[in-house]
Amino acid sequence: MRRVVTGHDENGRSVVVSDGPVPRSREFTSLPGWVSRLPWATEPGEPVGRTGEDPTPKVTSLLPAPGGTRFIVLTFPPDTAMADPAFDPVAFDREQRADSPGIAELIEPDGMHTTPTVDYGIVLRGEIVLELDDGHRTRLSAGDIVIQNGTRHGWRNHSGQPATVAFVLVGTERDG
């Protein structure tokens, strides 16, 4: 995946300051096919960076504070990968906690989770199912978008192919 970042030169003109792979990317060894990428992040009240300096090395939590954002791109392997006898859920949890601090701690054993964020999701490739609290399932495919309003949910890939989804998480205040 390629990331192009713009900024300004010393004369205030817009320029491309970075063009290359997403530096903060991880292909999990505990679950082949699971890929996590953090192309960008902002902190609350932070002005637009004129230099285009990469903020991702400083991110210590993928859960943004109210007013902050995280741009995350996940590739989900088919759910059958977790049914493989070689799958080690403890190793996967350890990798999740190292890669996705702030969010990984909120993920329940069945993959359901709730975050104090509004998430804008765009399915880039494949098919994925959004499961909600009541068991309701909505199938999404490439080009579909979902607005996730801080509700408990989980992602399921029942297809035989990987699914890639881009998410922009906007930190909000908890609702009660």
Automatic annotation (TrEMBL):
Domain named Cupin type-2: residues: 111-167
Basic and acidic residues bias (residue ranges): 1-12
Ranges where the record places region Disordered: 1-21
Coiled-coil segments: none
Gene3D superfamilies in UniProt: 2.20.70.150, Jelly Rolls
Alphabetical list of InterPro entries matching this protein: Cupin_2, OryJ/VirC-like, RmlC-like_jellyroll, RmlC_Cupin_sf
Pfam family, one: Cupin_2
Protein name as annotated: Cupin domain-containing protein
